[in-house]
Amino acid sequence: MATIGFIGLGIMGSPMAVNLARAGHTVTGWNRSPERTEALVEAGGRAAGSIAEAVRDADVVITMLPAAPQVEACAYGEDGILAHAKKGALLIDMSSITPQASVGLARNAAERGIRVLDAPVSGGEAGAVEAVLSIMVGGEAADFEAARPVFEALGKTFVLCGPHGAGQTVKAANQLIVAVNLQACAEAIAFLEKAGIDLDAALEVLNGGLAGSTVLTRKQQNFLHRDYRPGFKLALHHKDMAVVTDTARDLGVVLPAGSLAAQLIASAVARGEGELDHSALLRGVELLSGTAE
Amino acid sequence: MATIGFIGLGIMGSPMAVNLARAGHTVTGWNRSPERTEALVEAGGRAAGSIAEAVRDADVVITMLPAAPQVEACAYGEDGILAHAKKGALLIDMSSITPQASVGLARNAAERGIRVLDAPVSGGEAGAVEAVLSIMVGGEAADFEAARPVFEALGKTFVLCGPHGAGQTVKAANQLIVAVNLQACAEAIAFLEKAGIDLDAALEVLNGGLAGSTVLTRKQQNFLHRDYRPGFKLALHHKDMAVVTDTARDLGVVLPAGSLAAQLIASAVARGEGELDHSALLRGVELLSGTAE
Amino acid sequence: MATIGFIGLGIMGSPMAVNLARAGHTVTGWNRSPERTEALVEAGGRAAGSIAEAVRDADVVITMLPAAPQVEACAYGEDGILAHAKKGALLIDMSSITPQASVGLARNAAERGIRVLDAPVSGGEAGAVEAVLSIMVGGEAADFEAARPVFEALGKTFVLCGPHGAGQTVKAANQLIVAVNLQACAEAIAFLEKAGIDLDAALEVLNGGLAGSTVLTRKQQNFLHRDYRPGFKLALHHKDMAVVTDTARDLGVVLPAGSLAAQLIASAVARGEGELDHSALLRGVELLSGTAE
Amino acid sequence: MATIGFIGLGIMGSPMAVNLARAGHTVTGWNRSPERTEALVEAGGRAAGSIAEAVRDADVVITMLPAAPQVEACAYGEDGILAHAKKGALLIDMSSITPQASVGLARNAAERGIRVLDAPVSGGEAGAVEAVLSIMVGGEAADFEAARPVFEALGKTFVLCGPHGAGQTVKAANQLIVAVNLQACAEAIAFLEKAGIDLDAALEVLNGGLAGSTVLTRKQQNFLHRDYRPGFKLALHHKDMAVVTDTARDLGVVLPAGSLAAQLIASAVARGEGELDHSALLRGVELLSGTAE
Q: What residues does the 6-phosphogluconate dehydrogenase NADP-binding domain cover (chains A, B, C, D) (predicted)?
């Protein structure tokens, strides 16, 4: 069992830290708003008053933060991880940031003798609570092996995809597919509704054939009832699509459908729908088709 | 057990007729090229020398043909189904044609006392052979109930979606989602490859998260090995996308991603790739990204 | 000077017939709503009570009608042009219809000894009134020469582009460019406005550089004042984009920007804006960007 | 007449400096490769051995450089403009960089008592040689008035569009329209060619109607003869489209056609065509349509 410092106890981080504590790890958590540590403490973990306190004795430090600026602030600050973690500690950054930021973090940490994995996740709040996340990992094979007990407490699928940054690149590919397939399903639903088809019947049979997908299954109720409580917010998907399109530009890969989906997500955010679940892409199709309420 | 006349013993129709014969139905098959009847005869069915002969004694007539012109030729010809089927027979057209053509067929058949269901399928050759097709049905509820034993021998999921033409409309929605999601997966794979990611690892973890889909599972080997033997030909998907975009235009539904995918499929066909499996959309992404061989 | 039967005295046809009469031609006009003949009569022309009466003595018959069904009704009906025009007459169809419909009209007319040119126009109501239309002509060179005095009374630029249907094909290309460039200008204006730029200044300098175009000049006031009185209606441009995309599909030409513009025009029509000028594509950009009123 | 230091004597900068010298201004030019100063010297200007020497006595300093890094190196370096120009000098940056970089330059220069205008241009090499550039200016009105004699020697149209950065924003809008309209024209030409239309005739009549534009006029020969010698390179347009799409993302403006054009330009660059004129977007349409050689 590992001694773990857990930085970032938000919607995702809190249940993840809880699952680690329940699995028997010694978990000390820190969050900017200290009231978010309660669930962890109830599950047997400890609350730290500072990042330094959370990471000082840890073999493994986990960060689960909204974006690169927060990761970099927590890593590089005076009270930060690199200044206070033990030499030889393993820093697992499970936030979704750019591949370049992950590569930079690994290089900077190496200078302090700290090893790094990038390990962003897919699965949302439900996946975090139920410990069935998909975890996409970049870094050294030995570090991946060392992290295995941690990943086992958090997810169902976890795979080493390549060197530092590779986890973030795969996460970007994940968000690309999810965005485009959400749009596909939204267009199909608007099409079926305007044709007067029984949607419950149609979705059942669509899911049984080549059109079936996790998006269509997990978001079916959102689509059918126009229930756009998140889930995963369009504003976050918008941020992720910037990673996708900027990385693709750097790589010289052309993404006709991906860049269209990025525009349609940007449109939803510009229209003030950033706090809705990303299944609300259906609203955009309805707006374009003149059937939005 | 029903007496069935089966018209059209192609890649899909032949294994479907075989499965019906094996399930105990009395099946008489007809095909324009008569040598295609062999498999059915081996499975215990009979070969007919004409459509008239195939349908004369049938309670159920099934058509499984490439497109509307063939369906209409077989239905309306002098030697055709409407001229020779029994009054009260049930005609199940499992071809993929336009909703309008299905509505027209039902109306014309009704004048001869023949009932019609439109019942296009999803699942490809493998789904036909393994009898796990998804079947999307339009027509009367009583006729759907009457067809149940037939559908049970052919597929895993079969659902009545609405009145005449509704099966075709749902099939169009199916082809829309499949086209866009194939394009999404193709873009993600080109993105991952150019980033130097281990594709086997990446696809495993992608399939485990929200990006997972039947397309990603069933077409994984096609994508990984650039093995574009059909499966389902781009030329047929091109024909289906014309149904999708024309129907959407009539309905007044806007399909930004669907019409983009239709253009990219049209491009593959224009470049001479119509006979490849539709997973060959990956070639288009590679072409645009300068990495095609 | 020619004896001309003019069929269709709408927004475009009426000023065209007037210009022909003023140029000294003998013009007999017919319109489904007979009150539309007044302007022509004032200009020295005559009103006919039937198509037969309008075309019986004409050397040249001109049709200027909304779409193919109206052209075909006027041409092929019992009281129609082919039944009543003189052998050797020249039928100039200036309506915008599909290239295929034009080819069919030419073939059918030839069987009655009547020659045909397809000669659709660009320039809108203002171009018709001021006799500065661009005229895109398909047909035989000798017939084009014979029609020269007619074209000189109607337009500024008129060019023989190829055989029967070629005029319609060039008109389709015209509508393709106009649609996409309108969308480009609309996006640029939304971009400049949200950036707080002085639009009058910006449009002046844009028009002076490589971004300059007839669309930007002629539609500048529409864009600046959100004055969407037609001009040219989105509903008609929608019909024309169907000709563009269907012809492109038949030809095997891929139009990524053209098909996107077609979707955005379809969206405007679906949202109930079909009666607005096509510069109202700006409303769609504002809707997507959350700045529509 | 002004004393001018001119930094950057490339394809655009060299003829611009020559035009200023010919108009009677005292011009001292500097270029990283010193052999590029010859044309200026022949026109009566002087060559400087360093930036410091070029700007020391200047009332006006002009920069005409490829991108923001070069502008910032020349402005902020130890031997740079801000370190050596006179207090009260006017720095006119005619390079195309991001609006943000222009705002930053103005702020940093102000601390040294140096005034700044951003003044990017449209018109290409021909426009620079013939002194008919369009100049889009951002900054203070008084500085714009002071720069008027300079602009008169360089261009035909020059307009103050707003505060610092506004010139760059309008330039971005210019590049957006040009990219999309080039794509529109390319699609129309591919469409006409595949339909067998006489292109010379078609382009004449298209240019006479609402489809007419500066792009269609100036690039006509490039399109007709597949002559893709630049002109304006796709690689530079690619860089500019990154400014367009990034700025639009910051502004919250959705650019469906603009982002599609950005992808198609990125595709051309990825395929190794970055050194061709941007009219080579036609090659992309031909590639997608299977008609590329």
A: 3-160
